[in-house]
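Recap quiz, item 2
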Amino acid sequence: MENTNLKAPLRVSESKKEVTILFAGDSGDGIQLTGSQFTNTSALFGNDISTFPSYPAEIRAPQGTIAGVSGFQLNFGSIEIFTRGDRCDVLVVMNAAALKANLDKLKIGGAIIANIAGFDKKNLKLAGYLDQRNPLEDNSLGKYRVIEIDVTKLTREALKDSTLGMKEKDRSKNMFVLGFLYWMYNRELAMTEKFLQEKFAKSPELIESNLAVLKAGYNYGDTSETFTTRYEVKPAPMPKGTYRNMMGNQAVAIGLVAAAQQADLPLFYGSYPITPASDILHELSKHKNFNVRSFQAEDEIAAITSAIGASFAGNIGITASSGPGIALKGEALGLACILELPLVVVNVQRGGPSTGLPTKTEQADLMQAFYGRNGEAPIPIIAASSPKDCFDTAFEAVRIAVEHMTPVFMLSDGYIGNGAEPWKLRSASDLPKITAPLIRKPNAGEAFLPYKRDEKGVRPWAVPGISGLEHRIGGLEKEDLTGNVSYDPENHEKMVKLRAEKIDKIALSIPLQEFDNGFHTGKLCILSWGSTYGAVKTAVKEMVEEGYAISHIHLRYIFPFPGNLEQLLSGFDHVLVPELNNGQLVKIVRSEFLIDAKPLNKIKGLPFSSLEIREAAEKYFV
Amino acid sequence: MSTTAESPKYTAKDFSSDQEIRWCPGCGDYSILKQVQTILPEIGVERENVVFISGIGCSSRFPYYMNTYGMHSIHGRAPAFASGLKIANPDLSVWVITGDGDALSIGGNHLIHLLRRNFDLNILLFNNEIYGLTKGQYSPTSPEGKVTKSTPMGSVDHPFNPLALAAGADATFISRAMDRDPIQLRDVLREASEHKGTSLVEIYQNCNVFNDGAFEVFTDKRTKANTTIFVEHGKPMIFGENKNLGLRLDGATPVVVDLEAGEFSIDDLWVHDKTSRAKAGILMRCFETPGAGAYGIPRPFGVFYRENRACYEDLLHNQIKTAYERKGEGNLDALLRGSNTWTIG
């Protein structure tokens, strides 16, 4: 048949393994929504994906300014993805401030998609461009490919028949950008169409307008002759199975619920709102039909103490916060430690000290978790490595707390708490059972000894309501076995040691440490924990493939360490510990194992890039 | 709670633990402990369902002496522990034991939030107007000018009026009693235990070591009749050695009248109405140091205010029940699956 479509420009389709896009604009521009829609659509398509939103600390910082720029970075590919992407291939900017704030994140030769309506004199001035010099016009962007689109004008045109007001019309301009990117990356609109229909179910006019703009954006790519290249990012070779998208904080909440179900106990969640941990409270509050009792307490102290009260009554007491809130919980943590009741404390870390950088990520609360209490008060610490790993880590935190009758710290941070990635579905029947040491009758003839321990050093959990087990517990040092108040010097030392031994014995119930990558001996081992996982994994993977004698160990269990960690580290000439702090795990490793581990620190409120890890690692091979 | 008052299942001794009591000899805490142990068998609660939660301070040793479940927690936080406990198990009979420093200084925040939420539990606030356990510093209820170790020139802090504070937090049960009037104390404790909601019982308690005699004007037999009044719902406010004095409301101002002077009779007196928030407010403000002689406003004791309001734990569990009714018991597989999935392979 003769091709009559003569008008269609010649299209080039380029295949890419991995693409990183950063959407940036005013915090009111719908950036987060645009990013998460592109994420969901790409995940559904079968790409592996990792995302990282960044918000301004102020809810509505002045429009058009650098302070008000909100961003959403996503890295998707036909290969396995472990990080949000070091540098971007595509930078979408809705205004001049968004460009100025993010240009350094764009690869040389990368594409800038700019909404030129956001580059008028006013916006240029607000963004702080000298003499309102327009970067789109002064050749300063020569190293990049600039695609200028008057998104605002085109959006208004697409809605010229709509009765919506101008402000409401302009609000859907993010859909134009999304539609354009869907065209650029060969994506279907279906998932976003469905999303819009659900989101605006009560307002058919808004469904119609958003759909119209989304399609206009797509068609603009299709018909405008400016763009000759489309990209193809094939599905990733992910293990077969059914997937969902999982955000870190959401995964914490779901992991906690799953663990409570597997322990067959009610879940009590005491919490005070704090960035970036509040989403855990929001998520748990939705799941009341799993016997979840969520309690928004009057402050951080009440959040943890109410959780301890609930644990005393036989619930799994849980609280979460971020650094400043954890500081307030310190005294209660010591109490939970001496009472020997189950308690899970999640710290979604952020930049510190003090209020610090509430919306930025950091790993600087490790020492706080280790030592942040008066007296000898050891508390187990485990850390999540990625958004999806928050599920397993939260589950494991509950297991340790309940089975070992102890408070447990679970460390996450802003990067993985707000980040998202695909999660291969698990079925409830695959999850282990959790066994609480509940006791229902006296354990010493007629008498009940609340601090009589089992072979793991664990005391029984006696819940009010059971006749014959009435007992008193408290923050004063207690006599071994009876739990009665005791000031006896010998007894105090004994109890301190017994409590410490109980925690040490947890090492027997956790898996031995394995290498994430590399041989068991070699020149350099990178020892990482928490959210640095993806960047380190990516860097080490490349280097191993290139033949470097480099290995990678990533810790989930930080206290107690897995029993074989010291032996594993002894197989290397050098140990490098990258952390988003001024050197914390490295100090613990040095003092624990007497090895000359070296720090690699970044304290900018931002995750490591894999390049930064690689550059530091390469120095050991010159 | 099937045990009736006629055939108590327990005696006071059943509520006494085997621990040696370590309060100073002569401390007012002994009397309070005894009255609590006396009324518990009467109110028909099973011993295993009773939990005493305390903070820090002399009074907070209380749970160790009770043969029930108990927790000696951390300074000021007992109300928050009790809140979690009550959410976890609403059937428990929970008693918060606290003092003026514990409840009103370091724990002031938790106290007001507990009161507004109206958990069904009882707070016994031992008020001795001094920090005893730390050996004698002024407390948030010490009067202005109080000379203590930390205020050698007298305190310049204006004291809290604990009952007015409770009213400000919309407490549903506000009462006052004293260690040295065991009969009245037991009456107030019984009514507090019956009240569904947070019952605040302020108990004047003598610290015979660091603040001896702080309440002597109310407890001394020679002055008590003229300086105190025990208010009872529906009864006129009469006091005085020969029941010869009364309180009359002149507008919103309480006035002491002499019933023998002929000007006013019992019919003119203020009749106590514990359901009236406004009048309870006036009663709480009868707080000045009793005046010289017989005509100062007496310090009121008894139950000032009582109101029925839904309890937090009931509302919370109703929501859980509703969630079960609407969505059915949670299905973990469905939760793990979420709303959007895709399949590979």
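The domain at 12-214 of chain B is CATH 3.40.50.970 (Rossmann fold).
The mean pLDDT of chain B is 94.
End of item.
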